[in-house]
Amino acid sequence: MTVGESYSVAFQVALRAVVQETGAGRIVALRGLGELVSGCPGLRPRAVAALADGLRAPVGADGWDADARREAGRVLAALLRPAAEAPAGPADPTADPEPPPAADLDLWGATLVDLDLSRAVLGAARFADARFLGTTSFADVRFTGDADFARTVWSGPARFTRARFLGHAAFGRARFRADADFTGARFAAFAWFGRGEDELWEDDPAWETIEETSPAPWDEPNEDDPHWPVAVLMGDYQEWSEGGDGARFVGPVSFRQARFAGPAWFFKARFGAAATFRRARFGGPVHLDQPSVDLTGATWAGTADDGPVCWPLGWTPAPAGPDGAQVVPDDAVRPYSGQLADADPDVRRAGLAVLADLGDARPELRQRVVDAVCGYLRTPLPFDLAGPRTDGQAAELELRRTAQRMLAARLRPSTPAPGGPPHWPGTDLMLCGATLVDLDLGGCHVGHADFTGAQFHGDTGFAGSVFTGATFRLGGGDGQATFHGPVSFAGARLDRRRSVREVLGAVVGHSGMVVDETASPPG
């Protein structure tokens, strides 16, 4: 028997032990497999695939408990790290050295416990629909192929410090329930943190696997649509209608000193706490309009010809220099200076008042002001509205009501009282996925409004409101809005061509819904 044959037989024995053993025996078997493969690198692809199979098993199936998953992750990490790593030291920020051989990794739908793949080198990496429990680290990982993290759920801290994405990086509809750190990460292609839909054409073979998609249930506080995590849409040469949410960050997130060579797409991402992009470098199209973003020291080397660019209200690129344009506070919207990003609720309240005054005085700013306030209302609430509230939580809800009232007062076309706010006609509302409390848009005249997946708590009023168009759900049964308290649509017009019932479809109402279509458009 040759040495290679001997290793192959030993590998089969080790693999059989991993499959058959449970409890402490499986831990021993996993370690034995790792030691065997470390002495025969040619077995690495088969070992990686076998470990991935185990980690993709449902929780509790065949003895794959938390301890086994943690140990399998350790063995997997050892196999994916280069055998001879470069000496520690400062890396050349402009160089992209030839990567060592990379292994593809398929952990789609896996449940991973305290996974630490730091310093690993990966080819195509598929983590879509995976659940990450405990602390997870991808620090200093090099992804040489596309990295797919769509619809992932991160229960603990997530570390991507200095990670390098040489292919596309997809984080659509990822849910980060703790802090996330992308400090120093480098994105060579598309950095996708925006809307989370997958667009498939009719001849795409991926349609054959759509039914296998298994997103984690959408069990976020106050957001109960189980179909919200995934929607698959078909493109059309004339039109592609989409809706939905992007990545959801509940805790603080850092993209400090990150580099985006391609598009940096955060359209409809939601930040529930501080989001810093300090000294980040953007090289292409950017969509980053959330009011909680800090862009101090960031630069943009792109041009308007590269594609759409959208910065948060209060930030703008200065004239370009040798390293691109510095992103600086926008003098055009002073005295607003990012107050909606402040941790102090009193500062945020003052910021709402400043924004209202800006919009009242300058009609050209009104849509941008509304977009900023809608972004604030889309901030995830980290506490359950059904439970008892602290004084701080009660104050947070009252501030949310203040923002809603500020918008509603300017969307009603009735003759204002002396000294009251003017009407802001033709204004669109982007409230997809928002948690809204005691929202009263009764009598308001609005342009287009997106309430896809929005959660309405308390008493909600749309009586007598008029919309050019309103959306409360994605196609089919996905992304439906939910009303957790009583709501009235008496006399409302939600669309120029469709009835109220057609627009609402199968949205969920838990406490009574009044629909009076006498004022709805004919046909």
TrEMBL record:
Top-level taxon of origin: Bacteria
Stored Gene3D superfamilies: E3 ubiquitin-protein ligase SopA
Matches recorded under Pfam families: Pentapeptide_3
Cross-referenced InterPro entries: 5peptide_repeat (IPR001646)
Protein name according to UniProt: Pentapeptide repeat-containing protein
Organism per entry: Micromonospora antibiotica
